[in-house]
Specification:
Blueprint (H helix, E strand, L loop, with lengths): L2 E3 L5 E3 L10 H11 L3 H28 L6 H44 L6
Antiparallel strand pairs: 1-2
Helix pairs in contact: 2-3
Length: 121
Amino acid sequence: MEYQHEPFGFATERAVTKPYRHNETSVNEETAAAFESIESAQEYLGLLAQVVLESQQAVEAQIQGSADSRSSRREEALRLIVYNLEKLRHHIKVSHRILNDLCMLRRLLLHESRGSGGPNE
């Protein structure tokens, strides 16, 4: 039996039909494309936030499912994972706000530079 990795490295014992692999160059290209502009970085953070939320919900479901489990150490570890995922969600949200601020500042600067030679100035 092979192990299939769930989000954030949780391994579960399941039959794996196809191993998930990325070509190293395609990963580098995808990563570079994700940060070509502020807008693409915002999109990336949105996707990351969604994956983190889904992972957090999956771990919370595991906690609920193992409520009658005899392993309190496992439950404690799962609760720590939820806590850290929540911290990560907060940092992603803050980063998204910073990117929004940068977009707004860029628009203001572009608007000022276009309007600096106009009759309204």
